[in-house]
């Protein structure tokens, strides 16, 4: 066991804000709308919401529980709760690997936010500018690997700086201001967006079910987005849970985190799609969707410059709190398992992620590969094994104690079924189906 004294959140509320801050990020505002757009809208959305409820929430409770019960990092947790040579610790290694992969490309997109914040400050998104100028700004940025690497580097320095400072000081203070501010600006943007001509088309795209668009890929993408958005399946939430005190309840905290994360993603959807349809943008435009639609909308607002500064400032801050939680997974692992000094670990692995990420500035294919590897493979696999461990290996009394005496007491049985059976079977099926393995194994077309 680590002999260093472990920091704790000051309260359960502190945990909720920090964990929600880690969960809410580019995944909600950048990734969610473009994945929804690529997968045809409403059918994706329904699958996503069902997965959040029956997969995301139960696995999140399980993951936080593992952290709280073990008070360790994602590898140490399995040693502590099983035995020092436990094969389950592979889950932790996979999580650390996923953190490296995600942080590497995440930081590149966060770098785009820095450029857009900069442009916002210089008035490029104020009234009187044309939507073509936005496309040009985005095109120039993504066409310049050097510029992107530069911003990617700046973002990484910011992330390392905060992790360097330690858990409570670094994380908690940010999220207390960030979350409410982000909610307010998104609600304001939604009001604007819904008042645009063509907004109805956007709403129809999101809300009118069209199940002909359902496919194995839509479901795999929805599952990947569910884990990515909730930071699940890689030990990030386990690490947050490990800073919980005995008296802090896990179940309602997890429910709050899920509610906030989903609310912010949905809000982002209701901001983006009415604009997409009013401004005639292709919903399946891919990773650039948010960056080319929103600034064009800001240009139509009377206070466009201020709103755009607020939006990109907050988006950058949200990206930062998520990046911190990614680097925290890596750092906590090397500090706890190898007794590496915290400062050294955060700098060293920040540099490693920077180097892995630079490739994204040069190749979209490499970027897509890293994202797909992490979101659609590493995270679901991690979540699969986490639910198996929590469901079948962890003493049920430990989990039961978290439900008993709370308003969630009656849900314990349902939760246990979810982590024992529903989650593992669902993940395995979606996974086998989408990768074509299902068809190979059982000789059916998918
Ligand atoms: N959940 C974050 C987002 O939605 O932006 C991304 C993320 C952070 C994924 C931390 C995984 C993680 F461990």
Give an overview in words:
With 446 residues, this protein is mostly helical. It has one domain: Hydantoin permease, CATH 1.10.4160. Helices cover 77% and strands 0% of the residues. The protein is built from 19 helices and no strands. It has helices at 12-23, 26-38, 42-70, 76-81, 89-121, 131-142, 145-164, 167-194, 199-207, 216-229, 236-241, 251-278, 289-298, 304-338, 342-362, 364-393, 396-403, 412-434, 437-442. Helix 1 (12-23) packs across helix 14 (304-338) and helix 5 packs across helix 7. It is globular. Bound molecules: 4-fluoro-L-phenylalanine. 4-fluoro-L-phenylalanine binds next to helix 1, helix 2, helix 5, helix 10 and helix 14.
Keywords, separated by commas or semicolons:
single chain, Hydantoin permease, globular, binds 4-fluoro-L-phenylalanine, mainly alpha, 446 residues, 19 helices
Question: What is the H/E order?
Answer: HHHHHHHHHHHHHHHHHHH
Our Rg estimate from Cα atoms comes to 21 Å
**β-strand number:** 0
List low-pLDDT spans: none
Give the second-level CATH assignment, the architecture: Orthogonal Bundle
Which sheet architecture does the biggest sheet show? none
Specify the oligomeric state: single chain
What is the terminal-to-terminal distance? 47 Å
Structural class: mainly alpha
Overall spatial form:
globular
Give the tally of structural domains.
Answer: 1
Average pLDDT taken over every residue: 90
- In the CATH scheme, what's the topology name? Hydantoin permease
């Amino acid at each position: 066991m680590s002999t260093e004294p472990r920091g704790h959140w000051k309260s359960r509320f502190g945990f909720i804000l920090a964990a929600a801050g880690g969960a809410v990020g580019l995944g909600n505002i950048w990734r969610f709308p473009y994945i929804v757009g690529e997968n045809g809208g409403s059918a994706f959305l329904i699958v996503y919401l069902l997965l959040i409820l029956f997969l995301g929430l139960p696995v999140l409770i399980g993951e936080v529980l593992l952290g709280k019960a073990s008070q360790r990092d994602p590898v140490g947790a399995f040693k502590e709760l099983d035995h020092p040579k436990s094969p389950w610790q592979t889950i932790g290694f996979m999580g650390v690997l996923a953190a490296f992969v995600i942080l590497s490309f995440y930081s590149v997109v966060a770098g785009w936010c820095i450029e857009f914040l900069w442009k916002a400050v210089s008035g490029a998104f104020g009234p009187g500018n044309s939507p073509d100028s936005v496309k040009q700004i985005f095109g120039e940025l993504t066409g310049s690997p050097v510029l992107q690497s530069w911003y990617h580097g700046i973002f990484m320095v910011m992330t390392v700086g905060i992790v360097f400072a330690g858990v409570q000081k670094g994380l908690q203070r940010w999220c207390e201001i960030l979350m409410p501010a982000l909610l307010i600006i998104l609600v304001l943007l939604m009001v604007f967006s819904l008042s645009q001509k063509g907004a109805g088309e956007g709403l129809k795209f999101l809300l009118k079910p069209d199940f002909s668009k359902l496919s194995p890929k839509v479901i795999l993408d929805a599952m990947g987005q569910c884990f990515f958005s909730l930071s699940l399946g890689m030990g990030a939430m386990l690490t947050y849970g490990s800073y919980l005190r005995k008296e802090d309840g896990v179940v309602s905290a997890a429910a709050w985190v899920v509610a906030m994360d989903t609310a912010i993603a949905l809000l982002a959807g209701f901001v983006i799609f009415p604009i997409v349809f009013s401004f005639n943008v292709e919903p399946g435009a891919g990773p650039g969707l948010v960056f080319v639609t929103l600034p064009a909308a800001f240009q139509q607002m009377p206070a466009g410059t201020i709103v755009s500064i607020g939006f990109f400032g907050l988006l950058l801050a949200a990206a930062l709190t998520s990046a911190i939680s990614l680097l925290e997974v890596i750092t906590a692992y090397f500090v706890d398992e190898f007794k590496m000094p915290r400062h050294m670990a955060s700098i060293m692995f920040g540099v490693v992620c920077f180097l892995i990420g630079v490739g994204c500035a040069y190749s979209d294919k490499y970027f897509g590969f890293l994202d797909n590897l992490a979101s659609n493979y590493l995270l679901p696999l991690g979540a699969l094994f986490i639910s198996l461990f929590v469901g079948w290996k962890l003493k049920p009394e430990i989990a039961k104690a978290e439900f008993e005496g709370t308003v969630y007491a009656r849900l314990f049985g349902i939760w246990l079924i979810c982590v024992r059976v529903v989650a593992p079977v669902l993940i395995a099926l979606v996974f086998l189906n989408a990768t074509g393995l299902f068809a190979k194994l059982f000789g059916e077309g998918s």
